């Protein structure tokens, strides 16, 4: 079966003329159905830009994004979870989750049922009537996740979703995400700048580095279930660190 999403030879630059900056160059990657892929790279390298290309929000200057997901009524093909949940402060938790469903032509009862199911999935049913300011940071991220899940996407995109959380909450949410993944078998592209997080969560880690950024390597992680600081991953973390440091200018220079 074809990959659920692919980038082929994608290049992208921001700005014009002398102000033109090349961000992505010759980026290839693919995500198989049901796969959990981490996209790993330093801050500012172009990870969010790459997600925007995949979502069709940023047209590449070369190459193409191919997404093989049928359009189905009442659903979205992809959904994005942001680093800061981007909740509407004047809406309750349930209203924020419903937000993603509005515009899908669903009956009110269907919206209510989908909101309840999504809140249940992320363990937030008791907080359904709270406002965002009455939640902890971790709970707000769970709302963001519920809002994304409620539209029943085939591909879930997560842009450093746990980056702003304290270490304990972050570990909780990582485990929650792994449980959700087991329960739903969704295809997931998870963006992070944290090597340990990438290895713990993903089946495969794609390393983006350089200026302009390229895919510097793709690494299979040990078979799940993995432990945090799994001895099986020690060598892998070193290999990934090396790929992050092997930026394209150095490669070009040596050639
Ligand atoms: P990451 O998500 O890996 O931190 P981004 O994709 O957000 O990186 O940004 C990559 C680079 O592109 C950064 O240097 C950023 O400043 C620049 N950039 C992002 N968006 C724009 C834009 N709309 N116009 C100009 N430059 C941008
Ligand atoms: Mg980003």
Task: Characterise this structure.
By secondary structure, the protein is α/β, with parallel strands linked by helices. It folds into two domains: 5-69 and 157-254, P-loop containing nucleotide triphosphate hydrolases (Rossmann fold), CATH 3.40.50.300; 87-153, no CATH class. The chain has helices at 47-54, 93-99, 108-121, 137-150, 167-184, 195-201, 234-245, 248-254, and strands at 5-14, 21-31, 36-40, 62-67, 78-81, 155-159, 187-192, 204-209, 214-220. Helix 5 links the parallel strand 6 (155-159) and strand 7 (187-192). Helix 2 packs parallel to helix 4. The structure holds adenosine-5'-diphosphate and magnesium ion (MG). Adenosine-5'-diphosphate is lined by residues 14, 23, 41, 43-49.
Cα-to-Cα separation, first versus last residue: 37 Å
Number of domains: 2
Query: Could you name the CATH homologous superfamily of the largest domain?
Result: P-loop containing nucleotide triphosphate hydrolases
What do we call the CATH topology of the largest domain? Rossmann fold
Runs with pLDDT <50, length 5+? none
Small-molecule components bound: adenosine-5'-diphosphate, magnesium ion
Major sheet attributes: 6 strands, mixed
Strand content: 15-25%
The topology string of helices and strands comes to: EEEHEEHHHEHEHEEHH
Q: Would you identify the CATH architecture of the largest domain? A: 3-Layer(aba) Sandwich
Shape: globular
If you compute it from the alpha carbons, what radius of gyration comes out, rounded to the nearest whole angstrom? 19 Å
Number of strands: 9
